[in-house]
Design brief:
The protein is mainly alpha-helical. The protein has two domains: 7-104 and 114-135, Arc Repressor Mutant, subunit A (Orthogonal Bundle); 143-241, no CATH class. 48% of the residues lie in helices and 8% in strands. It contains ten helices and five strands. It has helices at residues 12-17, 21-33, 62-75, 121-135, 143-158, 167-179, 185-195, 208-213, 215-225, 231-241; strands spanning 7-8, 49-52, 78-83, 86-91, 97-98. The strands form two sheets. Strands 2-4-3 form a three-stranded antiparallel β-sheet. Strands 1-5 form a two-stranded antiparallel ribbon. A hairpin with a 2-residue loop joins strand 3 and strand 4. Helix 5 (143-158) crosses helix 6 (167-179), helix 5 runs parallel beside helix 7 (185-195) and helix 7 (185-195) packs across helix 9.
């Protein structure tokens, strides 16, 4: 593995990722192992790439390892390519870890010092990451966008003149629920429908940010009203009865 340093960035994304232990550990392993120069290596890894796969060494089961991969891929932190020698992980974004990839090739022979990034690079990188974060969008057929539209549609049914929200922002919050909170779309959707039927919660959950904030309480309240039914059964019954 190439020498050098990695930097853990103080950012909202870092704090959010810390809530998912396995994904954070896997990203840390990738950052620690990632190549930082073009120098020869038998695996032919390029800068930003790392060979991983020994998940038991960093305290994961195979299922936890695969789940962590999915989440890092979904959030755009890393990509993964299986090979006969293991999985090659590519660090796609430095908004959590800066792995100090050398930007200049060595000009001398053995012993030549690898040039470090220029002093103005952190500021440039920060601006780039802020722009990428702002521009990240979910497609109209994604679960994140679909759930956001569902919540908006149910609110507008009660208040037609509702000021139109930023659905991309709403989808971003749903994405955090799925990626960082471990919710599934199948788990979120019934809660959205229920809270917009409840006399108290329908006027308190007017955005996906509020939905995320109160999700655990909403599920508990929803279960209290139907102790013998699962979430899916309750929604199915309400649809049959025409009360949803």
């Amino acid at each position: 593995m190439s020498q050098g340093f990695i930097k853990l960035t103080r950012a909202d994304d870092t704090l959010e990722l810390l809530k998912d232990h396995n994904a954070f550990v896997l990203l840390t392993v990738i950052a620690l192992r990632a190549r930082r120069t073009e120098e020869f290596n038998v695996r032919n890894l390029r800068p930003g790439e790392a060979l991983i796969g020994d998940y038991a060494r960093y305290g994961m089961s195979r299922q936890q390892y695969r789940s962590a991969q999915r989440r890092l891929r979904h959030w755009g932190f890393a990509s993964f390519k299986p090979t006969t020698n293991g999985t090659i992980a590519t660090l796609l974004d430095e908004r959590v870890y800066d792995v100090n990839i050398a930007r200049e090739k060595p000009s001398g022979g053995p012993g030549t010092t690898i040039a470090h990034p220029s002093s103005d690079r952190p500021a440039t990188t920060t601006k780039k990451h802020k722009k990428e974060k702002k521009e990240k969008k979910y497609s109209a057929d994604s679960d994140e966008w679909r759930i956001s539209e569902l919540l908006l549609r149910l609110i507008v049914a009660r208040k037609p003149d509702l000021r139109k929200p930023d659905l991309s922002r709403w989808a971003h919050d749903v994405g955090r629920m799925i990626l960082l909170d471990g919710r599934t779309p199948e788990q979120i959707e019934p809660v959205v429908r229920w809270c917009q039927q409840d006399p108290f919660w329908q006027n308190n959950i007017l955005s996906t940010a509020k939905l995320r904030k109160h999700f655990d309480r909403l599920e508990l309240e929803m279960g209290r009203h139907a102790p013998t039914e699962s979430t899916r059964q309750r929604v199915a019954r309400m649809e049959r009865e025409g009360t949803l």
